[in-house]
Each structure stands twice: as structure tokens, then as C-alpha cells.
Design goal:
This protein has 9 helices and 14 strands. The protein has 2 domains: about 150 residues, HAD superfamily/HAD-like (Rossmann fold); about 110 residues, Hypothetical Protein, Haloacid Dehalogenase-like Hydrolase, Chain: A, domain 2 (2-Layer Sandwich).
Length: about 280
């Protein structure tokens, strides 16, 4: 890994420990990268408010690619740089589809205010849906199916039990509704055994978010490193030239990229060690 100019890391299950803390070694790794003038990027599924709940303002990152690439935030200057929401016409089609099918879902306000969201309880409401609602109740608004909001939306979230065939079928059905969206799979960060099915604008991905930063700074793809741990990191690691999965990644992903130790064992610090030696 020579002439590296940018390192991007996922947060939960990768940079953060299971208790959401930052290890001393990972924090020191960030400082060492800064001394080498390497740009340090978070690429996370968290919205910006949730990023700030686990990353103290003095943490030496440079940019935050949040909500799986729906937005890019300059961490040093605390300034919004870019965001991409689902256009209103597509949002309306999705809202109508889920309410007509009576499927439980969350629909998030346009970025960067997408910590706020509407929720709808359908026939498939489950314990995981209720757990998510409980954690985010302060920013939740019940959706009236007879008076759907007429606005752009950042994303949708549908929670299903772990079942690859069910996921693939639902993904295909949703993506057929309109061609301006895409569906991303994420393992639940709350409870094992559930899949989070997330819907974004078709151009949104962690990889595209990091590409925005690279284009801004004149950094080539060959000069990038990425570290992740889950299905929603595939776009990120598909973009970065040197890519790593953590040991705690799902077993079906472990043969795609080289492995570093788990998030509990300083995965990030191990991945960037060749850069700072």
C-alpha cells in the first residue's frame, strides 16, 4: 500500500467496539494517518445525528459519508457538503406501495434532517421494528396512510427476519416500482437474525460518497483504502483500491477481501498499519 492518500472506514462493527467506544489504538491510528497527511473518512449507515452520538467532535476525522452515502459532511469545518434524496415522485410511489401492501416501514425526512422519520405499522410488524421505534421514538411521527407526505425522502427502512430468499424477492419487487431507487441489505445492528432492507436514491452508496471526497481533493481510486464488516460495505470496498473485511463479518463475505482482526481487536489500526510504518 504505497502513496495512500485516503482511508475510509465503516463505524459499527468496524471502527467502533461493540459498546460503541473507540479503542486507544484506533484513535492513535487516526492521529498517525493525519501526520502522514492521509485523509480520514467515516463511511457509515448512521445518519449525521447518530454519528455525533458516538464520535466526539475532537476525533480526528476529516469527512463523514453518512446514511450510506446519502450525505457528505466536512467534519473539521462542521459543514454539509452534499446530499442526495429520493425524488418526490419516487417517494410517493414507495409510500403508496408499502401502505397498500400493509408493510411496516420507516420513511426518513430529507437529508440532512433524516434523523426524523415517519413510521407505519402493517401486518408484518415485529419485535425488531418495535425495538427500533423505541430507540428513535423522540424523532418518530406516525404516518397517516390517507394523507401521505408530499416531499423528497432520504430513505426507507423495512425490517424482515433473516431469510435471503425473502430478501431477494422483496428487493426485486421494490426496485421494479421505479428505476430511480436501489435497495441495500444490512445486518441488524440491534438484534441478530434480522435483515434491514434500506431504500435510497439509485446513486447513493458509500462508495459514491467516498468518490465525492476523492474528486473534491484530486485523489485517485488507486490511492484509497477501505475497511468494513457487512453487506452495506460492499459498495465502499468495491470502490477502494485496498479493501478489508473484519473478522466479525458474515461468513459468506469473508472470502471476498483480505481479513483483519475483529472490531473488538482494533481492526482499523491493523488495516492501516502498513501505511504508517
Amino acid at each position: 500500500m504505497e502513496n495512500i492518500k485516503l482511508v475510509a472506514t465503516d463505524l459499527d462493527g468496524t471502527f467502533l467496539k461493540n459498546d460503541r467506544s473507540i479503542s486507544d489504538k484506533n484513535l492513535e491510528a487516526l492521529r498517525l494517518l493525519g501526520r502522514k497527511n492521509v485523509v480520514r473518512v467515516v463511511a457509515t449507515g448512521r445518519n449525521l445525528k447518530k454519528v455525533k452520538e458516538v464520535i466526539p467532535p475532537e476525533t480526528p476525522f476529516d469527512y463523514i459519508v453518512y446514511s450510506s452515502g446519502a450525505g457528505v459532511f466536512n467534519w473539521k469545518e462542521q459543514k454539509e457538503m452534499f446530499h442526495q434524496n429520493i425524488i418526490q415522485s419516487s417517494a410517493q410511489k414507495l409510500l403508496s406501495y408499502f401502505t397498500a401492501k400493509n408493510i411496516s416501514f420507516h420513511a426518513f425526512f430529507p437529508a440532512p434532517e433524516n434523523h426524523n422519520h415517519w413510521y407505519f405499522r402493517g401486518d408484518n410488524s415485529c419485535e425488531e421494528f418495535e425495538r427500533y421505534f423505541t430507540f428513535n421514538q423522540a424523532f418518530s411521527y406516525e404516518l397517516n396512510a390517507l394523507e401521505l407526505p408530499e416531499t423528497e425522502l432520504c430513505q426507507f427502512l423495512v425490517i424482515i427476519k433473516e431469510n435471503r430468499i425473502h430478501f431477494e424477492k422483496l428487493k426485486a419487487e421494490i426496485e421494479a416500482i421505479c428505476d430511480q431507487i436501489r435497495v441495500i441489505r444490512t445486518s441488524s445492528p440491534i438484534t441478530e437474525g434480522y435483515i434491514w432492507l434500506e431504500i435510497f436514491h439509485q446513486s447513493v452508496s458509500k462508495g459514491n460518497g467516498v468518490k465525492q471526497v476523492c474528486d473534491l481533493l484530486g485523489i485517485s481510486q488507486e490511492q484509497t483504502v477501505g475497511v468494513g464488516n457487512d453487506f452495506n460495505d460492499l459498495d465502499l470496498l468495491g470502490f477502494t483500491r485496498h479493501s478489508f473485511f473484519t473478522e466479525n463479518a458474515p461468513s459468506e463475505l469473508k472470502n471476498i477481501y483480505p481479513l483483519v482482526p475483529s472490531n473488538e481487536d482494533d481492526a482499523f489500526a491493523h488495516a492501516i498499519q502498513p501505511i504508517v510504518l
